Predict the 3D structure of the following.
Amino acid sequence: MKAGISFCLIMLAGCTPFSAYRPNIDLHGVDLNRYEADMRDCESKSAGSSFEWGNPIAKCMATRGYKISHHY
């Protein structure tokens, strides 16, 4: 029984929204006020999106010209 509950909690933890996620972006030469405004806009646009492969926030920021780093 405990194993079943633990499994369910782990599965639910994987369903957290992307809003806490911030893509790793090269900020060299970036206007930070503009970056924050773009990030808020991308977060709000991705909040209602359906499941898709990849991260919708990172994709949105990339379309705005930000250099996304895939190294963690």
About this structure: The CA atoms of residues 19 and 43 lie 6 Å apart. The two ends are 36 Å apart (CA to CA). The chain has a mean pLDDT of 77. Residues 19-72 form one domain.
